[in-house]
Automatic annotation (TrEMBL):
Organism for this UniProt entry: Sphingomonas cynarae
Name the UniProt record assigns to this protein: DUF998 domain-containing protein
UniProt superkingdom: Bacteria
Keywords: Membrane, Transmembrane, Transmembrane helix
Stretches that traverse the bilayer: 45-62, 82-104, 116-142, 148-170
């Protein structure tokens, strides 16, 4: 998945892209939990975003996304890989569209929820892009920028946006 750096002579390796993803997802989940605690009227909506980040965190730790297409290929031997990827892409687009509609509806009543939901959707989309990564897209996502691949920097950006938005939401609730 990502470049690992060897530390010391004991053979310990650190995958900085994985560390970036773990940090981004953990902090985003904690920040959204805090926003849900502060915003009592929309607690369930914020807890749902927390759950999204926790599911993505579990996926990052479990590392199942790379085997998804291969597993479907094995289950459907007569169907080509491109057809599987197209089917998954359509399924993801429908799910993303439904999530975006729900986020906008809830966001009408809670001004900070729509941007927070879009940050969560962007984070989920980055995982979807990895599942569907084809040729140049995969090459771009896994291009190292320093010790972290581009996908790790995207995770950090989405996580930072989620934390900032949740902090603003908490502040707006607590200053009323």
């Amino acid at each position: 998945m990502a470049t690992a750096r060897r530390l010391g002579g004991d053979g310990v390796q650190i995958n900085w892209t994985l560390v970036a993803g773990l940090a981004a997802l953990s902090l985003a989940a904690a920040a959204n939990w805090d926003a849900g605690t502060a915003a009592r009227q929309r607690r369930g909506a914020w807890r749902t975003l927390t759950l999204v980040y926790l599911v993505l965190l579990a996926e990052l730790i479990g590392d199942t996304r790379f085997g998804a297409v291969a597993g479907i290929d094995a289950a459907l031997p007569g169907v080509g890989r491109h057809m599987v990827q197209i089917g998954l892409a359509l399924l993801m687009l429908v799910a993303a569209g439904g999530a975006a509609i729900a986020i906008v509806r809830i966001g009408r009543r809670s001004p900070w929820f729509a941007p927070a939901g879009m940050a969560a959707l962007a984070m989920a989309a980055s995982f979807g892009a990895e599942i569907l990564s084809v040729g140049p897209v995969g090459a771009l996502l896994y291009r190292p920028i320093g010790p972290i691949m581009l996908i790790g920097w995207l995770w950090l950006a989405c996580g930072a946006a989620a934390v900032a938005i949740a902090a603003l939401a908490v502040r707006s609730v607590r200053t009323r």
